[in-house]
Structures are given as structure tokens and as C-alpha cells.
Amino acid sequence: MENYLPGQIVTLTVKRVIDTGYVLTDTDREALEILLHTNEAGEAKLTEGDAVDVYLYHDKQKQLIATTTIPHVTTEVFDWAEVTEVKPGLGVFVDIGTSKHVLVSNDDLPEFMSAWPTVGDVLYVTLKHDKNNRLLADPVSEADFEGNWDLATEELFNQDLGARVFRSGKEGAVAITDDGYRAFIHHTERKREPRIGEWVEGRVIKVKPDGTLNMSLLPRKQEAQEVDAEKLLTYMQQHDGEMPYTSKTDPEVIRQTFEMSKAAFKRAIGKLLKDRHIIIGDTKIVLTESESDPS
């Protein structure tokens, strides 16, 4: 091997034992010396001349060092890795199973930070090197999944499913379900743009002929009506028992104020009226006496 790089898994030989661990070398390149610290040697009790499989990485001083802990993500293997730190302007760090967490560069993340993963989200990544041989984690692309999707069947239509988002944009998001199905979430089927790495739960609104799914993250109409009605009720309770909005209010004002469509607003008003929570006037809606006076 001409050059050793961070991210490689190699077999080296113990050149000598030192107080802090072991100095490793390549028998074909005895000038090479790489430290395996005691803390990174696990249960291994090595002696001079022993061969050992190690994973290489850079320490804080940019020195190449070794660990016997082999990561579950490599330059050849994709796997899920949890986000452990977010650095605006730099990227996010993910845990690949070793003490040294690896950077996902902001170049490989969405343009807007609102779609970046947060701590606890999980990315599907492999490892790569940049032009300076710096080790980076590289998020999966759709091309990496090409031909490897499981094929969904019609029985999944209208079923509730969970999925992990791995691509997100203004037009929509793409996620992979637990069962390996590709799920597309159109921007009209969500209230906000989901983060990559975020776990989302929704329902299947279409099973396509190619075995992929269309999902919606919006609640079903009955559930949405209850949520929206509660939102309007809370608003009025916080604004002296009334609101200056009715079925005649401009739809954009409704959307900006309550983050719901005019149709959803009218359905929520209908529910509150049916449940006798409100009285509708010409220019405003007010709570009934029992609602405005909790005592």
C-alpha cells in the first residue's frame, strides 16, 4: 500500500510496546510508525511482532493513529449514523461506531439549514476523502439505491408508515421506509420541509406501478379538523375570547395566521360551531360564555 489514509482498515504489526500503548508498522515499510493508544486497543494484549487489524483516523493534531474498533461505516459500506453535533458553516458530525466522529460537509447538505439534520437524526452514509485526503462522511444519493428498492404492493395504500428522509427540497422529499420502499413526499403533502435524517410518519396516498410510494405527512381530514379546531380555540382563549377572522377573511391572511388553508379553517369553524364553542358574528367570532369563562 503506497499511502495510508484515514478511514482505511488495515493489518499492521506491533513494532514496539510503549507506556501509552503500541507503535505499529508495516513490515514492508518499517519507517512507518502509527500509534495504537491503550484506550483504543480494547481488550487486546499485544506483544512485539503481533499482527492486528486496525482502523486509521486523524487525531486533533492531524496525526494518523489507529484503533481496534472497526466502524460499521466504511469507504465500501453504507450504514446509518447518528448525528452528534451540528456546526453551522461547516457541517454535521456523525457517529460511525468509533470514538472519532466524522464530518458531513456542508457541501453535501441542503442549502438551507432548516433542512439540515439535528442532533439525534440519522443519516445513511459511507466514507470518502476530499482533495486533501481529509476523511468525510458522504450521505446516500438516489443513484446509490438504484435497483435496490423493495417493491411496494397495493395493500399498502392508505396505510400508516414511518420513513427516514434522505433528500429534501422545495419540490418534495424522498424517504426510505423501514421495509426498504422509496417514498416521495410532495411539498403540498407536508406543513414544512422535513430535515434530512429526520424520522417522519405519514400515510400512503399512492402506490405507483414501479413499486414506489407517494406519502402524505398531513393528518387525515377528521384528525386535521380536530387539531385545527383546537388551534382556533386556543387562539381565542389567548385573545380575550374572540378573533377578527371569519369565513369572509382573505385566504392568505388565514394561512399566515394559522398555517391552514381557508377550507381547513372553515371546517374547523364548523366543528367549533357544532360543538357550541363559538358564536359567529359579521366581523368576528367569539367564544360562548361557558368557553370564555372557565370557572
Structure write-up:
16% of the residues lie in helices and 37% in strands. With 295 residues, it is α+β, with helices and mostly antiparallel strands. It folds into 4 domains: 9-67, OB fold (Dihydrolipoamide Acetyltransferase, E2P) (Beta Barrel), CATH 2.40.50.140; 79-140, Nucleic acid-binding proteins (OB fold (Dihydrolipoamide Acetyltransferase, E2P)), CATH 2.40.50.140; 151-216, OB fold (Dihydrolipoamide Acetyltransferase, E2P) (Beta Barrel), CATH 2.40.50.140; 221-292, Winged helix-like DNA-binding domain superfamily/Winged helix DNA-binding domain (Arc Repressor Mutant, subunit A, Orthogonal Bundle), CATH 1.10.10.10. Strand 7 (91-95) and strand 8 form a beta hairpin. Helix 2 (221-237) crosses helix 4 (262-274). The radius of gyration is 28 Å and the shape is elongated. It starts with 8 loop residues before the first strand and ends with a helix. The relative contact order is 0.08.
Which sheet architecture does the biggest sheet show?
5 strands, mixed, barrel
Helix and strand pattern: EEEEEEEEEEHEEEEEHEHHEEH
Question: What oligomeric arrangement do these chains adopt?
Answer: single chain
CATH class of the largest domain: Mainly Alpha
Quick one: CATH superfamily of the largest domain?
Winged helix-like DNA-binding domain superfamily/Winged helix DNA-binding domain
Low-confidence segments, ≥5 residues, pLDDT <50?
Answer: none
* Mass-distribution shape: elongated
Helix content: 10-25%
Could you tell me the strand content as a percent range?
35-45%
Beta strands, count: 18
Integer average pLDDT: 90
Q: Structural class from helices and strands?
A: alpha+beta
Describe the strand arrangement of the main beta sheet, using strand numbers.
1-2-3-5-4
Overall tally of structural domains: 4
Ends distance = 80 Å
**Tally the helices: what do you get?**
5
Radius of gyration: 28 Å
CATH topology title of the largest domain: Arc Repressor Mutant, subunit A
- Quickly give the CATH architecture of the largest domain: Orthogonal Bundle
